[in-house]
Design a protein that fits this description.
Mean pLDDT: 91
Number of strands: 6
Order of helices and strands: EEHEEEHE
Radius of gyration: 13 Å
Number of helices: 2
Structural class: alpha+beta
Low-confidence stretches: none
Length: about 100
């Protein structure tokens, strides 16, 4: 597969949720349709443990991170600084744009 075929951009809305694990964090789950596309290229772009490097935009904030695989899907980690800048919290519905980096 060429680099051109690896270009993947997704746009979706999702609810921010809080995970209270040993390293508490906020996430947005990628919808099932997007996960199908991500699974199709995951072996070509993942740098280990199934994580996929992406650039994410919510509102006017943009940052680089990695999608985390979970239960057959993917999670978008939302940094505290982003939540503060965009004035969003757990339970809020946000519009997410992400582009796979490779």
């Amino acid at each position: 597969m060429s680099d051109m075929e690896l270009e993947l951009a997704l746009e979706f809305s999702g609810e921010i949720w809080y995970w209270r694990g040993p390293s508490p964090f906020h996430f947005v789950s990628v919808p099932a349709e997007g996960c199908v596309e991500l699974h199709a290229i995951s072996k070509l772009v993942s740098y280990g443990w199934g994580v996929i490097p992406v650039t994410v935009r919510i509102g006017s904030s943009e940052w680089t991170t990695s999608l985390l695989p979970k239960d057959g899907g993917y999670l978008v980690p939302i940094k505290d600084a982003i939540r503060a800048a965009e004035r969003i919290a757990a339970g809020d519905l946000v519009d997410v744009q992400l582009v796979v980096r490779h």
